[in-house]
């Protein structure tokens, strides 16, 4: 998930972050709690704590838990004239070597790691 509003691109172009040319992807769906005995949980926990180490020490009374977003809807807003709806199947099977180009900006898919 990404947004040109979070990168220097929009600032350099002097676009307001809400300008459609500051491309964004909006993901919605159900948030699912992960089972803490699974490899997926351990992977998510390690990734989360590597980016936010202070979370390791949050009090148990906060009832914090690790989960994932089960994506149901994907909306791309990157131009004037409205959003584009993308199916989760198309989104997760995107070819990261292709560029999308419009008259305002170029957007390359970010390869998965």
Report on this model:
Strands 1-2-3 form a 3-stranded antiparallel β-sheet. The chain has a two-stranded antiparallel sheet with strand order 4-5. It has 113 residues and is of the alpha+beta class. The chain has 3 helices and 5 strands, in the order H-E-H-E-E-H-E-E. The mean pLDDT is 83. It has a single domain (4-108), classed as Electron Transport, Fmn-binding Protein, Chain A (Pnp Oxidase, Chain A, Roll).
Order of helices and strands: HEHEEHEE
CATH architecture: Roll
Strand content: 25-35%
Q: Level of helix content? A: 10-25%
Q: CATH top level?
A: Mainly Beta
The global form is extended
Ranges where pLDDT stays below 50 over 5 or more residues in a row are: none
Whole-angstrom Rg: 17 Å
Strand order of the largest sheet: 1-2-3
CATH superfamily: Electron Transport, Fmn-binding Protein, Chain A
N/C terminus separation: 13 Å
The CATH topology label is Pnp Oxidase, Chain A
The average pLDDT value, as a whole number, equals 83
Major beta-sheet overview: 3 strands, antiparallel
Structural class of the helix and strand makeup?
alpha+beta
As for the number of domains, it is 1
- Number of distinct beta strands: 5
Count helical runs.
Answer: 3
Protein name: CREG-like beta-barrel domain-containing protein
InterPro entries: CREG_beta-barrel, Split_barrel_FMN-bd
Domain CREG-like beta-barrel: 5-93
What topology emerges from the helices and strands here?
Elements: H1 8-13, E1 24-33, H2 39-51, E2 67-77, E3 84-86, H3 88-92, E4 99-101, E5 106-108
Antiparallel strand pairs: 1-2, 2-3, 4-5
